[in-house]
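User: I'm designing a mutation panel for Nuclease-related domain-containing protein and want to avoid disrupting the core. Could you give me a predicted structure to guide residue selection? Please restate the sequence first so the numbering is unambiguous.

Assistant: Good idea. Sequence first, for numbering, then the predicted structure tokens:
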Amino acid sequence: MLIKKRNEPLSLIGLQSLIDRLGNNHQYYFKVEEELRRRKAGYSGELNFDKHIKEFRPSYPFALIHDVCLFHNGVYFQMDSVLIMPDRIIIFEIKNLGGKLTVKTNPTQFIQEINGERKILQSPITELERKKIFLDRWLKERGINIPIKGMIALAFTNELFIEEDTGTEIAFTREIPIRLYNIEIEKELFNFGKVNTLARNIAESHQEYNPFPLTKTMNIDKKDIITGVICPGCSYKGMIWFQKKWQCPECKYNAADCHFSLLNDWFHLMDNQITNRQFRYFSRVEHQPIAKRLLKRSGLVMKGSRSTAFYTR
């Protein structure tokens, strides 16, 4: 039973806003571009896992929770997917890695080789062990004692060499349903009611990390963010409000709601509230009454009055 589905990560959405409004000559442009590429690949791998795990439909009670972040003793720990079974919990660490992978122990290393170039990656096994410890503590704090296992899920088929037994199962996502079916339930610790209750408790305790505004999170000067309504047709920055529509001087695309995405970019990048003056600056609308009408029709919540008014989501 799926208790919590996976949503597009806020960090991925925010990075897309940032790359759209950061000049390609900016000192952080290529860093942001690489981080965006990495997060897109990670999310793609997670969706690949989700597609394959749907094949797992056992006869015993189970619950699946995707993308959950819990808080324990001052520490946040995020888990890509969690499977609750009658006798155990399995945490999945999902990786979308290209090239040839070599796994070593003592110390644990993941070595990636692409086109002859070798790179030592942060070990997902170490990260998984950390999450197992924190989830175990989180559960015991609530009087729940159940074995916790971990599995590394490789989203796409790689050339894989495991030199020594790591003690952690590593599998391609397409293999995982069969591996799960081959697990024998040793002792039923949780019946259907307990599985369901625990899964919903975990899902309700989820605390999504909010990275906004990214200019603050990534220490980027707000003055470096390119202003203007971006044309959905040709990506031109600086659509003009004319005759109750946004008009693109480049491709002639026009629509009345193009400033909605501009407002999303503002909240992702600049601040968690916006004033009429700030909207005029960011949208390049000169007239205060027009800006006021556009803000009122944007589904935002107005707080304050007159000179102190501002808008939030």
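For picking mutation sites, this is relevant: The chain has a mean pLDDT of 94. The CA atoms of residues 202 and 286 lie 49 Å apart.
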